[in-house]
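From the pipeline queue, job 12 of 40. The input is one protein chain; the requested action is below.

Action: predict structure.
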Amino acid sequence: MKYGKGLREEDRRGGNIPVFGSNGIVGYHNTAVTKGQSIIIGRKGSIGEVALSNISCWPIDTTYYIDEVSEYIDLSWLFWALKFTNLPELNKGSTIPGLNRDDVYDLSVACPPLADQHEIVTHLEAQMAEAQRLRMAAERQIEAAQALQPAFLKSVFDDLANQNWSKVALGELGDIVSGITLGRKLANAIKTRSVPYLRVANVKDGFFDLSEVYEINATEPEIERYRLQYGDLLLTEGGDRDKLGRGTFWESQISDCIHQNHIFRVRFNQNQVLSQFASYQMESSYGKAYFLAHSKQTTGIATINQEVLSGFPFILPSVEEQTRIVNQLKPKLAQTQEIRKAARHQIKAITALPDAILQETFGGFTPPVED
C-alpha cells in the first residue's frame, strides 16, 4: 500500500483538480498529486475524517492519502472500512492533536475475499444513496413548509397594508426595552442569583428553541426589570441578515426568565394589540421589508436599534379584526410547523443511518485497533 502525506495548502493554484483538506474539498488546483482514486485521511484539524476521491486530487499537508493498494484490496471497500473504524482514537497527541502515520500503518482490518469486497461496496453505496435520497426528500419538505408560512402571512398583511387601517408607531403601542448586558461589571458586595436568560440563538422566526437555555447571575432589580411576562413580543436586533427583527411572543415557557441585550422586548396593552397578531405582522414580508430598509448594514451584517423598532408603522385594525386574523392564520401556520417538526425528526433518524449501516456491515468482522 502506498501511503503519502499531502502538500502545503499554500502550494496550490487555480484549476479543476479537487484539493482535499482534513474535512473534504477546500478548493481546486491545476495539478494532481494522487494517481486516480484515492482515500484522504485527516491528520490535523478534523482528525480521522475519511474522504474518497474517485479522480486524481491534491491532498494538503493536514492529510494523509492512500492511492495504491495490493491486488487483494478494493480501495472503495477500504474507504468504507476506515469510515467504520474509530480513527480519532489513534490520536496520541496531547499538546498538538494529530494522527501519527506509524500508528495508522499499524492499524489492522480483516479483509474478506476481493469478490466479497466488491459486493459489499455495491450494497453499501446503494444503501448510502438511499439514505441521502431520504434526507433530501425530508429537506425538501422543510423547504416547502418554510415557503408556505411567508406566503400565508403575505396574503394577509399585504391586503391589510392596502386597506385604510390606521398605522401607529410601535413605540406608541408598547413598552420597548433591550435586555441584560452580558459581562457587565457588578460590585462584589451586590447580591445576585442565577436565572435563565434568552440568547439570540433561542429566538427563531415564529418560535423559540429552548433546547439549551443558559443562566446568568442577576440582581433582584435586574430580574424585576427584565423578567418576561406572558404576551411579551421578543425580536432580535440582527447580526446575520436572517436574524433581523426575527422573533415571536412569549408564553411563559420558563419562569423567572430574562433576556439579553441583543433582544428587544415589546410589552403591549392586550386590550389594544394581540401579541400573536403582532408576532405574525413582524414575521410577514411587510414587517421584514421595513426592518431591512431601515437597518444599519455592513458586509453580511444587518442590525436595527430601538429607535428603528419604535418607529415601525404597525397596522392596527380593531381587536376583533386581529382576533379574526389570528384565528385564520393559526391553524395554517401550525400545520407548517408540524410538517417541519416531523421532517426534522426524519432527518435526525436518517442522519444516524450511515453509522448503523456501517455497523451492520463491518461490525462482525473488523477487529479492534491494535495497541
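Job complete. The two ends are 21 Å apart (CA to CA).
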